[in-house]
Design a protein that fits this description.
Rna Polymerase Sigma Factor, Chain: A, Arc Repressor Mutant, subunit A, 2 domains
């Protein structure tokens, strides 16, 4: 019996589903889509600001999961975080692609202008800060990093995180609070 067809009254857990996806089960991929498609769409929509591009990002997410299904490593994090991170990256790729096409069209029409030096410097600063934040996030304890990542990158509510991780909402809120306090302290030390 596969995880896509769990025993009566029992839903397959994510580890069982991903094992079946890795084994080539299209049905298991469908189960994964049913569980995370809506959240992936919300993340993609927040990045792309367009329904069509968000849907494209979700489609690319699950195609990518299928094509690289052997890459998931359980010890690196939960299935949900993996799926939602892929969705976010696909949405960013699509948003960038759209910006590049828009710039190319404007250039073809003679309307393209070079970015102001301040905006280039601002972009470089933002990129460096994002890289620093990712490094600091990696230093958090696993439990705190997981809930902070799901809350801010996955854009899940405390309740959704609690349901997904099968934890009390208070535990989720506490872990997020502790993680943010630690990040704040680390950021203050780096800034000095």
């Amino acid at each position: 019996m596969s995880a896509a067809e769990p025993a009566a009254g029992r839903a397959a857990d994510d580890d069982e589903v991903i094992a079946d996806v890795k084994a080539g089960s299209v049905d298991a991929l469908g189960v994964l889509y049913d569980r995370y498609g809506d959240r992936a769409y919300r993340i993609a929509r927040s990045v792309c600001h367009d329904d069509g591009r968000a849907q494209e990002a979700v489609q690319e997410t699950f195609i990518s999961i299928w094509m690289t299904r052997g890459n998931y490593e359980q010890q690196r994090g939960k299935v949900a975080a993996w799926v939602l991170t892929i969705a976010r990256h696909r949405a960013i790729d699509i948003a960038r692609r759209n910006q590049a096409h828009a710039a190319h069209r404007a250039s073809d029409e003679g309307l393209h202008t070079l970015p102001a030096p301040a905006s280039v410097a601002e972009h470089v600063t933002n990129q460096a800060q994002a890289e620093d934040l990712r490094g600091l996030l990696a230093q958090l304890p696993d439990a705190q990093r997981e809930v902070v990542t799901l809350a801010f990158y996955g854009q899940l509510t405390h309740t959704e995180i609690a349901e997904h991780l099968n934890l009390p909402a208070g535990t989720v809120k506490g872990r997020i609070r502790l993680g943010l306090q630690r990040l704040r302290g680390d950021i203050d030390r780096v800034a000095c």
